[in-house]
Design a protein that fits this description.
CATH architecture of the largest domain: Alpha-Beta Barrel
Number of helices: 11
Structural class: alpha/beta
Largest sheet: 6 strands, parallel
Shape: globular
Distance between the termini: 40 Å
CATH superfamily of the largest domain: Glycoside hydrolase/deacetylase
Bound molecules: zinc ion
CATH topology of the largest domain: TIM Barrel
CATH class of the largest domain: Alpha Beta
Number of domains: 2
Order of helices and strands: HHHEEHEHEHHEHEEHEHEHEEEEEEEE
Helix content: 25-40%
């Protein structure tokens, strides 16, 4: 199935029409497409196989070697059963404590800050450190303007280039993060306007997280358990926080919080008609305002994090890289090429800008008899990973064995080679 993210990226304007025609908030009256010629985010011109130096004559049919067979790409990185991702909103004094809590349990999150709202000047150093261990910093605009109702005229003004592009450039200027993938809507305002989506897309954001219907408690359990159909109006699974803002309630009961994760992990709630759920383990996405938490190992936030953490079959990843991964996995092509000196060889490529999409993907191979193998990527040996090691990065390269399977995790636009050792 091709998701809306691919449609929107690859087909441009016709995709917008498609998305608007779907049920949901729906198109807004009198709204004309502003920019029918917008460029897709990060799609490179030309043939990716050619960039790899592969000619048509190098390609061959699959399955010529019965000992090493390519089975396909895994749904999540490293064949994880489920994904845990979190988002933290707002520039407040509580951000460092919230990051400390995440780090205690190995949870990776997207930290959405307003880049010209104090105490941001006191937060940058901690944010830089967070990026270095696998968190993401996202834009929550520069000034965090909000208004109810969020009229079109308010959104046209609030979503200025200064706010959208300026906040992105603030993050790039203050940190070493190579790209800003994620936008988080202040107060959840303006997330339903297609012209806002287009402005965010033009500034290079891949995904924008909403905060739906705060007044009536829509934020408590939006219950998204997979990737959002429209990445520029992306929900999450549930909040983990006390009552705050204009919301009628919070969500702090540990059994409820943990049960929702269990549901996503097991994929039990899946039904054929639901587009938000999926059988067999999905994406668990919690969001929190650090100023509406209690800290300490005996409090709901850390107890929930402790429940989520330390699972070898879960992929811990921030939201932006998780959405980039969706695009990468849907656009990556794996082609068998001529074997050489006993190496089975595969060209793995996509036509996306690797500066934006620096993600790894995982290829699964069946190795006859579970025999020992060695693996190379781009001519260099890949390290083998222990089975229980946590999956908490999105751009590393390695392989690991699971019975007769070899799971090879690489960044695309490379040639992967496998060879039996004995
Ligand atoms: Zn906010």
């Amino acid at each position: 199935m091709i998701s809306s993210v691919t449609r929107k990226l690859l087909l441009g304007v016709s995709a917008l029409v498609l998305v608007q025609a779907m049920p949901g908030p729906g198109p807004l009256a009198g709204q004309a497409p502003e920019d029918s010629d917008h460029a897709p985010v990060g799609l490179l011109p030309g043939d990716p196989l050619q960039r790899l130096g592969i000619a048509a004559g190098d390609l061959r049919g699959a399955g010529s070697n019965p000992n090493i067979r390519y089975l396909g790409m895994t749904r999540f990185l490293d064949k994880a059963r489920a994904v845990v991702t979190g988002t933290l909103d707002d520039s407040t004094d509580f951000v460092p404590r919230a990051i400390d809590a995440l780090d205690k349990y190995g949870i990776k999150a997207t930290i959405a800050v307003s880049t010209q709202r104090e105490p941001i000047s006191l937060l940058w150093e901690r944010l830089r450190e967070a990026i270095s261990i696998g968190h993401e910093v996202a834009s929550h605009s520069r000034r965090h303007q909000c208004q109810w109702p969020d009229t079109e005229s308010f959104c046209r003004e609030a979503y200025s280039q200064d706010e959208i592009v300026g906040s992105r450039d603030d993050i790039l200027g203050k940190t070493e993060q190579p790209y800003v993938w994620t936008w988080v809507y202040p107060c959840g305002n303006c997330a339903d306007y297609e012209f806002v989506h287009r402005r965010l897309m033009q500034a290079g954001y891949l995904v924008a997280r909403n905060y739906p219907d705060e007044r009536r408690g829509g934020i408590l359990v939006p219950d998204l358990q997979t990737w959002a159909r429209d990445p520029y109006n992306a929900a999450f699974t549930q909040v983990v926080q006390k009552k705050g803002g204009v919301a009628p309630a919070g969500r702090t009961e540990l059994p409820d919080l943990n049960a929702k994760f269990d549901e996503v992990y097991k994929g039990e709630a899946a039904s054929g008609s639901s587009i938000n759920k999926r059988y067999g383990g999905g994406i668990y996405h919690f969001m929190s305002h650090p100023q509406w938490l209690d800290y300490g190992t005996d409090k709901f936030f850390e107890q929930h994090l402790a429940y989520l953490g330390g699972r070898p079959d879960v992929w811990y990843v921030p939201m932006g890289p998780l959405y980039a991964y969706q695009v990468v996995s849907e656009n990556t092509v794996v082609r068998p090429i001529q074997s050489k000196d006993g190496w089975e060889r595969f060209a793995v490529c996509h036509g996306l800008d690797p500066a934006i999409y620096n993600n790894s993907i995982t290829l699964e191979f069946r190795v006859a008899g579970g025999r020992k193998i060695e693996v190379r990527s781009a001519g260099g040996p890949l390290p083998e990973r222990a089975p229980k090691q946590l999956i908490d990065r999105w751009n590393l390269e390695y392989f690991r064995r699971a019975g007769d399977s070899a799971l090879v995790t690489v960044r695309p636009n490379t040639i992967v080679e496998l060879r039996l050792i004995d």
